[in-house]
Amino acid sequence: MAEFKDLQATAAEMYSNEEMKTWLFTHTRSEEEYHQIRRMLKYMASWKPVEWKGKTGERVPVEV
Fold first, then answer.
1. What is d(CA 34, CA 21) in angstroms, rounded to the nearest whole number?
2. Cβ distance 44 to 35 under 8 Å?
3. Which residues of the chain have pLDDT under 50?
């Protein structure tokens, strides 16, 4: 889990860094591809893993 948290921190840093935004924009084939990568970085930085507990049909998410 520590490796994933490191990956999340890196994604958050890449998402908020102005130089990275410029670099991504110049190194992507289209504006759509640029926005897809930015959305993925934002999603990855804010994703919270959960563990499901309970019987099937009655499960509830519990944060890890």
1. 9
2. no
3. none
Task: Give 4-16 pLDDT, tens digit per residue.
Answer: 889 999 999 999 9
- CA dist 10 and 2 (Å) reads 12
Backbone angles phi, psi at 28, to 5 degrees: -110, 155
DSSP the chain: -HHHHHHHHHHHHHHH-HHHHHHHHHHSSSHHHHHHHHHHHHHHHH---EEEESSTTS-EEEE-
The structure's pTM equals 0.73
Please list, in sequence order, all residues whose beta carbon lies within 8 angstroms of the beta carbon of residue 62, skipping any fewer than 6 positions away.
50, 51, 52, 53
